[in-house]
Design goal:
single chain; 271 residues; mainly alpha; two-stranded antiparallel ribbon; 10 helices; elongated
Length: 271
């Protein structure tokens, strides 16, 4: 025979009203729903700041390529704009004004976009080659000294822009490991290299020779003789060094470093 207390307990549990069970179930459902909402909010917050690495490779390939191409192109355009602004502030065209005359031995002088591209490549640690004219080496050297501008702040701006581009790729694509993060940022080279090669071709300054008339005297009266100038004069970034250093090394290193840095910061914040 069971004790009286046990009978009283069993009877109290079995005899509870149905409303109590319904109320208890509603409370459990509300608690479970709250937990689900909290979990969803945490996942959403992780996605919003690019730190959610729990779903590796969940972005389609075309989305990853589109993000990388747009980011790399934007980075190059920002760097090019910074180079133009810096060149304008240095005003090299005023130093070339003395050579803008009909008696100049060169068919044309360097344009602003060429000077800006030379400055851009110097900011990538690429030297600018100058081949002086064999006919007028002094004038060609003077033009080169005035047109080749020191890169100044671009040596800092360029790595910073590429690092930010890599970090943005990590923000958009949420890499799941440190290696993937580094590769995600370094992938901006896919667009940075082709654009750099085009810039190398555009940045070559190679003026044609000019025929200058020289008055003289012959037996039958005045005559005009011609003489060719500007032979061999050119200014350009070295194509091989530009392709390797500016087109590959800089975007791979700085882009990968920026993406990896963001990934590690996100991991540390979520730990």
């Amino acid at each position: 025979m069971l004790p009286f207390e046990y009978h009283s307990l069993v009877g109290s549990v079995n005899d509870r009203p149905p409303e109590w069970d319904s109320q208890r179930k509603r409370q459990l459902c509300r608690g479970e729903g709250h937990r689900v909402r909290v979990t969803h909010e945490r996942e959403t917050a992780g996605d919003s700041d690019g730190c959610n690495a729990s779903r590796p490779g969940h972005q389609p390939l075309h989305h990853r390529l589109t993000t990388t191409v747009k980011t790399g192109m934007t980075a190059f355009l920002i760097i090019a704009a910074a180079a133009v602004v810096w060149v304008w502030s240095r005003d090299p065209m005023s130093h070339l004004a003395d050579h803008r005359s009909t008696s100049s031995p060169f068919s044309r002088l360097p344009e602003t976009y060429e000077i800006a591209l030379w400055t851009l490549f110097q900011g990538h640690a690429v030297d600018i080659a100058v081949e002086q004219s064999t006919n007028d080496p002094d004038t060609s050297a003077t033009i080169a000294d005035a047109a080749v501008v020191d890169p100044g702040p671009l040596v800092v701006v360029i790595p910073l822009v590429l690092a930010v581009a890599g970090a943005y790729c990590a923000f958009r694509l949420s890499p799941s490991s440190a290696v993937e993060a580094a590769l995600t940022g370094a992938a901006v080279v896919l667009v940075y290299l082709p654009v750099t090669l085009v810039a190398v071709w555009v940045a070559r300054y190679d003026p044609g020779a000019v025929t200058i008339g020289i008055e003289g005297s012959v037996d039958r009266g005045p005559a005009l003789f011609g003489e060719e100038w500007a032979i061999g004069f050119s200014i350009y970034p070295d194509p091989g060094v530009s392709a390797v250093v500016a087109g590959v090394v800089y975007p791979v290193f700085w882009g990968g470093l920026g993406s990896l840095t963001r990934y590690l910061l996100c991991r540390r914040r979520s730990a």
